[in-house]
Write a structure and sequence with these properties.
The complex is a heterodimer of chains A (336) and B (253). Chain A is an all-alpha fold. Chain A contains 16 helices and two strands. Chain A has one domain. The radius of gyration of chain B is 18 Å and the shape is globular. The complex binds adenosine-5'-triphosphate (ATP) and magnesium ion.
């Protein structure tokens, strides 16, 4: 582990923000807690995706499959077979990791370029959607409803809006630390060399398949776990949302807009975008359905034009000019 | 045979570290490397020369596993390594530089060399190894720069640093001194000589004849994919075949 990592986990700024969120959660209304939980889950999903999409530079559009697995299969196993959702969470994560390794295998076996990898994963994303819709065990097209939450932690019940907010905040925090840990470890170095130049990476002894497969497995498992929590949080598991590649695109947008060079990117972008789009929908949804999407879309375009490498690198640059240090360390931005 | 410039016997006593036998590579109708055989002994500096398109870079790619051989074999440290994956060759102790410099665009110079050093070290040791290696090639001040900010010369030095950081037994350097000033090239040569005295083996592709003549123990000459000569610098200068095919008339320029 690079020394920078220990600087990050001791960063007062980072923990200050996390504690601030936790404290704000004490007073928030259930409606706002719901939005906050959703935000944390998106942070988790975007961070999980960024391990593959950011560090390894592979544009996976299949991540909705892992969300769907974690959400639908874990719920179905519980509803149909009475399997505890904690166990389901682990099983689905393991299965997702295996499927992730399979994607990495396809990538290496057929030496897929960036575009073909994206297209192949998109195809799998679509196939995943079709399988879910046609498979009654996981609820088919109509989805699954989970029984009422009674707050029994052993049954994967977190008890109400506040409980899910805590759980999601904890998950997002853990994922943030995992991302930093990977970034500053051997695996992170290897993934970044593979992303930048696969031939040069191989020349210094980096095995492409092995490292990409590990990244895929970690990313897929993390995505699946967030999916399981999402399912329990929303009680009703909607396949048309959770199994659709549109969800992958949403995750990719958040991760990319935030900036992929630092784990702070996906986190900051989700904190800005998810509440914004939710509140926008709340304000405008009644009179002008669709307008919120248009405004959201314009905002995204504006960010990309202002800073093609993402929101966080832009913020860091501004912050740097004012002499800030801590943010620069945890965002890992070299140079301006 | 006579002893080489370091006084080591250069006869057939020592097991070669690299043995290329009948290496052949075709691109469509073009035979880029045509039944090339040669050997390199430990701690030897071999220069591989030949006109543009002779097949030197392709031969490096065949040896280092970046392209599969159509025919022939490669053995490294007495082990058959024909068509081994490039990363595996690196782990066995073979490093190569790229003629067309390959950069990690988003990594700093120090990170790039650290990534290479991680092949044999844990993170802490790799970071220190990167410091050392950058100092060795004279890139210490550029450690925090990202590669696209480097001049071509510095990129070439970075190529060398990445190779060295993997602590190889044998290094294939493809025109790393092209484009360097004489004094910069001299600095690289100094590093090469020093590492050779510590037992490292080099195969260099270079076009600058004074450099080749001053550093090589042995010269292998290629033309149109074939090996046309193999001998000491003195022998190569006298070789009529080489003069006609490669040097033209003006050898001592
Ligand atoms: N991937 C490839 N596909 C098709 N032809 C190739 C390929 N790589 C090399 N060649 C051809 O093979 C021949 C040998 O090329 P190579 O790059 O090995 O020569 P070289 O001796 O390194 O030349 P230079 O001194 O210009 O670097 C050239 O005619 C080149 O055009
Ligand atoms: Mg060449």
């Amino acid at each position: 582990m690079r020394p920078e990592f220990f600087g990050i986990i001791r960063s007062p700024f980072l923990w200050g923000v996390i504690v601030l969120f936790a404290v704000l959660g004490q007073w928030a209304s259930p409606y706002h807690l719901g939005i906050a939980t959703q935000t944390m889950l998106y942070i988790a999903l975007a961070l999980a995706w960024a391990i593959v999409g950011g560090f390894a530079g592979q544009l996976s559009i299949a991540h909705n499959v892992f969300v769907a697995l974690g959400a639908l299969l874990a719920s179905a196993l519980f509803l149909r077979l009475g399997i505890n959702m904690w166990v389901g969470l682990v099983l689905c994560a393991a299965l997702s990791a295996l499927i992730g390794v399979f994607f990495a295998y396809l990538d290496s076996k057929f030496s897929l370029g960036h575009l073909s990898f994206a297209l192949v994963t998109l195809a799998f994303g679509e196939v995943g959607m079709l399988i879910v819709a046609g498979w009654d065990f996981v609820g088919g097209a109509s989805g699954l409803s989970l029984p009422r939450d009674q707050g029994r932690l052993l049954n994967f019940e977190f008890g109400g809006a506040r409980g899910y907010f805590w759980a999601a905040l904890a998950l997002a925090t853990v994922y943030l630390l995992i991302n930093y840990a990977i970034l500053h470890s051997r695996l992170g170095f290897y993934l970044r060399t593979l992303r930048d130049n696969e031939a040069a990476a191989q020349a210094v002894g980096v095995y492409p398949f092995r490292n990409k497969a590990i990244a895929m497995a970690i990313s897929a498992a993390m995505t699946s776990v967030a999916g399981t929590l999402y399912a329990r949080f929303s009680n009703f598991v909607d396949p048309s949302f959770l199994a659709s590649p549109t969800l992958s695109i949403e995750i990719i947008l958040i991760a990319t807009i935030g900036g992929l060079t630092t784990p702070l990117g996906p986190a900051v972008a989700a904190i800005v975008l998810v509440p914004f789009s939710e509140l926008l929908r709340g304000w405008l949804g009644g009179q002008l359905p669709g307008l919120s999407h248009i405004i959201y879309g314009f905002l995204i375009v504006a960010v990309i034009l202002a800073s093609p490498r993402g929101l966080v690198p832009l913020l860091v640059k501004i912050f740097r000019q004012r002499g800030g240090k801590d943010v620069a360390t945890i965002s890992m931005q070299k140079g301006a | 045979m006579s002893p080489d410039i370091n006084g080591r016997p250069s006869g057939g006593l020592i097991e070669p570290i690299l043995r290329v036998h009948g290496a052949t590579k075709r691109f469509g109708g073009l035979t880029a490397v045509d039944r090339v055989s040669f050997e390199v002994r430990p701690a030897e500096i071999v220069a591989l020369i030949g006109p543009n398109g002779a097949g030197k870079t392709t031969l490096f790619s065949l040896i280092s596993g970046f392209q599969p051989l159509d025919e022939g074999s490669v053995s490294f440290q007495a082990k058959d390594v024909t068509n081994f994956a490039p990363a595996r060759m690196a782990h066995l102790g073979l490093a190569r530089s790229f003629q067309i410099v390959q950069v990690f665009a988003d990594l700093t110079v120090h990170e790039a060399v650290t990534a290479a050093a991680l092949m044999r070290h844990s993170m802490g040791a790799a970071l220190r190894k990167a410091d050392e290696t950058l100092a060795l090639v004279g890139l210490s001040e550029k450690g925090a720069n990202v590669t696209p900010e480097l001049s071509l010369q510095d990129r070439k030095l970075l190529e060398v640093a990445k190779c060295l950081a993997t602590e190889p037994k044998l290094i294939l350097l493809d025109e790393v001194m092209a484009g360097l000033t004489m004094s910069e090239a001299e600095a690289v040569l100094k590093v090469v000589r020093r590492l050779r005295s510590e037992g490292m083996t080099f195969v260099l592709v270079e076009h600058v004849m004074p450099i080749v003549m001053s550093i090589a123990d042995r010269i292998v000459v290629m033309n149109f994919g074939q090996k046309i000569a193999d001998g000491s610098p003195a022998e190569i200068i006298e070789d009529r075949f080489v003069r006609d095919a490669y040097f033209g008339e003006d050898l001592h320029a």
